[in-house]
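Deviations from the work plan: none for this task. Representative record:
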Amino acid sequence: MVKWLLAVLMLGVIVWAGWFLYQNSRPEAQVLKQVQALEGLLNFTGTEGNIQEVVRMEMLSNVPAPECKVDNIHALINSTYNPTSFASAVLRCGKMCDFVKVRFSHIEISINSSDSATVTLEASVDAKAQQSSERLMDSADLTLNYLKINGNWKLSQVSADQMLK
Amino acid sequence: MGCKGFFCPKITKKYCLRVAIVAIIAYIVFGFLCNPFIIDGESMMPTYPKHGCMLSWNGAYWFKPPAIGDVIIARFNSRIAYLKRIVALPGDTVQWIDGTLYRNGEPMNEPYVKYSSNWNSELITVEPAHVYVVGDNRGMNRDEHKHGQLKINRIIGVPLW
């Protein structure tokens, strides 16, 4: 029994350490995950646009800390309708960061009626300043309400509920 | 089984089955029940020192609600979590006056707080389906210490130790 427990523990530690190293060595993997989440939203809204390259560019270049506060993240999501404005929103730098990670998770889509739907998701931002040890972290629950107008889903309202308030 | 047998085992059907079972159990245990974490912050000092390692127990609130004084792990995103202590439940009021935490107008007994502070805050009423969480290290500047109301569904579990 003890042997089995030790084997489970050992394997767990090995798998976790491997996964941890793998994830940290491939930040793009995380970016792609976010992109997939964003693309899920975009598909849902029926919006076209090559967001993938834009997000990849943002994640791998210097992006702003103040703009990335979750208070403002709904603005970023709003602007995903248009990749160019998304890029400019992210690039309006107050402070340059080494790396910024924006993550979306727990995305749930509920269709309220034939012309109304709600998307809820958790959004987080983790940004490191370039020339200091300052780290900005923020997370919020976002609620996006959609209305179907002329056969197309349109974002009608976004609200953010801070994780710690 | 000797050392050689342990590191260079004979690949038999039985051995493969054993490895598969161990892998499945490890995946379930470490993926869903007990997630490993590295502590990267000072807000829970001295109860949980910086750079410590721990495992969570995600079943802590399957059959009971969170309670005052519980140390909890709350999801920040898929890879980061906060380690905090619950100091107020839904409907409670919370206020700091000269470093003392008042819950529902009564000063709280907090033996786990070892560093004194001079925190002051306005009176806050905890919203439904939320708990108020804060770290044990009150010696930090209040602005640098992440604390506040947290949705209960963000709680992953409690530390195993």
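DSSP finds two helices and eleven strands in chain B.
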